[in-house]
Structures are given as structure tokens and as C-alpha cells.
Amino acid sequence: MFSFSPYSADIHHVIGHFLSLHRDQQGLSLVSVVVAFTILAIVVGPATYLIEQSTQLSVASRQQVTASDLAQSEIQVLNAEANQSFANLTTMLGTTSHTETVGPITYTIADDLYWTEGTSNPDGCNANGGSSQVLEPILSASVTVTWTNMAPFPPVRSTTGYHVPAGYSSPTTGSVLVVVENQAAAPDGDITVQLTAQGAASDSAQTVQTDTQGCAYFPFLEPGNYTVALTAPSGQDWISPTANPTPSQTLSVTASANSQADFTYAQAATITIAPPNITVPWQFGISLGSTSLPGGETVYAPGGTTPISNIFPAISGYQAWLGQCTLYTSFSGIDLGPTVVAPPGGSATLNLLGQPITLTVTSQGSPVANAAVHIIQTTNSGTPLEGCTNSLTDVGTTNSSGQLSFLAPIGAITLTITSGSSSLAYPSTGALATPGGGMLDVPITLP
Question: Is 0.90 topped by the overall pTM?
């Protein structure tokens, strides 16, 4: 049986009228037949295509309706699980998927469950207090359904959220709140937080992303000790103020209470050292300091390596000086020059601070060439500094004029000058003070 659309009737009417004209005039010729069928092909072809496309869209629409039904059914399954055992629902955190076949089509149903800070408390993390009930987090669920050949339709999505039932902070379980902030004390979102019970296998760890307030929440935990660790976003280098790319804390969870771990974490910066136009004994290494680092701590780059990567982007900026023996807090009253801020994920260039020294070595009034110069960092009394390399560091040799210019570490140093069998320690008592500033001229006469 054939069925005709209104368009088909019109087409047949036109062709019939055309053939009738030719028949009345001079009979139906072969040319007339060819022309008639050519017109039929031109007109019927697009009409047939439109009919086929309409049929395909109708099939795809039915598939989309089926996908919507599956998404709603999955939401109902999650609702039933939440009503039966909310604690069991929390074990499904993360993304899981399964398939359903309806007719000839296979649908993939993906469930994504994650904690949010909820809407009942606008203070989010700051509302913590002593009990986990203060936060009233919401468990959000997102269901996504896809299927093969789904174009032109997008995936079908359905979302819902679950308030934690009253009394969820039971006498037998506790919870952990993790708060992550960047270098400017602003919330860090999308940071991976991993919680692992001490003594448990690593594959049993729970993983949650921090929300827009920098919060990650882990409820329904058995009392005991847990380790909380941070992981940087994929493809990026992040660092803590103590130069740890994967900072972690260990905390104790007790029943009916909320334990909290606070982190400062930021995308790492890079610092390049611009040396002065003078010989630099890189063997002493480079120290970087910032008042934003805890306790005035310093970052040390051995061997003068530059650029220095994985630097915490301290908002107070950095200064750099030669040597590893002097902490940033030791420079009270000494002008270290301007600070330079290295932004998160960016770079900055620092001038290297040290004491420029020009050493002139003579013997019996004549310059001594090729005299070897060694220095060591000491206290003001001349004793080696604790925690430093106590061996003499080779700086270089004097030129034909008996001179050698070099950058010395800030603080106090002693020198040893050797030429042939002659050797001299300078100064003979105490140490040479190098507080920073202009060039320091040191005339030395060998015996």
C-alpha cells in the first residue's frame, strides 16, 4: 500500500496537467515522457529526503524520551537508597556508571555524587565550630544518560540533592572538615583532598574536590586517626608555604565531633636570579626569604641553580642572598633591597644580594698573582657557623695586579690566601663583617 502526502498530490496534479497539454496538442511523445519524469525526480527527491529526515528525528526523539525516563528512574533509585540508609549513599561518592538496553539501543547511565556546603549556612567553612552539625552539608547527585548515535540531541541530565538527616552525627561516628586557602587567604576550589584511615590500604581512601569556598567534607567516619593529603590540579605545580607539593596532616576523629584540617596551598611560581657583574662563588648556594613564610623560613637552592621552580607565591614578595647559613630573620636592621612578588603560576627575577669584595694581595710591596683565595662563613668571633659547610670554599685566584673581586655571603667570613708556600688567614682574630652595601676593599700582605 502506498500513502501520499499533500505534496505528492500536488506533484501528480502538475505532471498530469503537463501530460494532458501535450496529449491534446500532438500526442504523448517520448520527449514529453522524459521531461515529465525529470520534473518528478527534481520535485520528489527533496520531498523524499525531508520525509526520511523527519522519520529519523522521530526515532531520535523517542530515544531521548527513553533516556529521560531512565534518568528519572535512576534518581528514584537514589532516593530510595537515601531513605533506606543515607550512610550507604555516602559510600557512592564519586562517579559510577552502568548500562541499560531498551530495544536495540544501549544507554549508559552515570551517577556523580559529591558534597556541597549547602545553602542553609552562608558562612560555609567558617561556620564550623565544635560540631559537624553546624555545616549541614548537602549531598548532590547528578545523573547523566548517553547513548550511541544520539546526535543532534545532547546527553540527558537530571540532578537532585539530599539534606543530611537529623541526628546523622551519631554517637558512633565523626567527621572531618578540610579548609584550603591560597596565598591571599582566598578559598581554593577544585583541589583534590584525599582522606585515608591510618593502617588502611591506599585504595580505600576517600577523595573529594574542594568546593567554591575551599571546603571538603568527610562525614560518617569511624573514630580513629586519619591522614588528609592535597593533590594539585592535573598538569599544574602547586606548593605549600613549607615547600611541600603534596601537603598532608594527620588528625584524630572522635565520635559526635568534627575535626578540622586547614591548609595554605597555591600554584607554584618560578624565580630567576640576576647575578651582579662580579665573580659569584655559587658553591655557597642561594637563599630566598619572605615574611609570608612561616617563622621567616628560607628556601635554599644548592649550587646556585637558577631559575628556581616550585616557589610558594608569597604575597609579601621575596629577596635573595648568597649563602645558606643565614636565616631571613637574621637580617634585623640590614637593608636587603626591595622585595619582588612572584605570582601564582608566573615568574619573577631577583637581584642577588651579597657583599662585593675587592681583595688586593701583595708581598714585599709587589702584587701577588695567582694567589688562591678561599673563604668560610663564620660567626663574628670567627668560629664556623653551625649547620654550614665548614670546609674552605674556593673563590678564585688573583690577577696580575694581585686583585680578585667577588661576591661574598652576607654576615661574617674569614679568608685564607695561599701563594706557593705562603699562607695567611684573615683576619687573624674575629671575622670580616660583610653587612651589605658598597664594595669592601681588603688589602692583604703575605709574608
Answer: no
